[in-house]
Design goal:
By secondary structure, this protein is an alpha+beta fold. Helices cover 28% and strands 35% of the residues. Strand 7 and strand 8 form a beta hairpin.
Length: 190
């Protein structure tokens, strides 16, 4: 794993720009998470969303990045934030891939495109050797994205969904090698 801090960077894909999140993204995240169809698929957030909680979460992202604890990217399409892709839960050479997108962006390949870039970042820049991920069992579209990324199913477990206020079945996956060919262009952040 990379021993020194990774400087904040932007990643450009064919259609998207991924940049480190910042506290000013909290307002747009609140808008996206105000859609029940989005938030019900997120296990760790509340519904209705709590603006102060979201702001607090975003305020810690820069520290997490510099400490090597998490790398969170705002996904932009034509200068508009449409979602988040991140690697967190980093311990040793393992981390967890997560993502969520506004409903208007579903089914357009943006999650796959952005996640491919972040998987490449996780293996090549962070130096991870394994990624974990998961999704609610009733969210097969997310499973399809993970399988296209090369993730392999592990198991199904019961997990508490904060947004739903109940236990759900969660499908868990892992990826040991970057099983993709697309390359991204990286550039430093100003």
């Amino acid at each position: 794993m990379n021993a020194s801090p990774i400087p904040p960077c932007r990643i450009a894909t064919e259609r998207l720009v991924l940049r480190p999140t910042n506290v000013s993204d909290a307002e747009r995240a609140f808008e996206i998470q105000s859609d029940w169809e989005v938030t019900r698929m997120l296990r760790m957030v509340s519904f209705p969303p709590d603006g102060a909680e979201i702001s607090h979460w975003f305020a810690d992202h820069e520290r997490e990045w510099m400490a090597g604890e998490a790398y969170r990217f705002a996904v932009e399409l034509q200068d508009r934030l449409i979602g988040i892709v991140d690697v967190d839960g980093i311990s040793g050479r393992e981390g967890e891939l997560g993502y969520w997108f506004e409903r208007a962006s579903w089914g357009r390949g943006y999650a796959l495109e952005a996640a491919q870039a972040v998987v490449q970042f996780a293996f090549s820049r962070i130096g991870l050797s394994k990624l974990r991920s998961g999704h609610a069992a009733d969210n097969p579209a997310s499973g399809k994205v993970l399988r296209k990324l090369g993730f392999r199913p592990l198991d199904s477990v019961r997990a508490v969904s904060r947004s739903r206020g109940q236990e759900i079945m969660q499908q868990r996956y892992s990826l040991l090698t970057p099983n993709h060919c697309q390359t991204s262009r990286e550039s430093g952040v100003g």
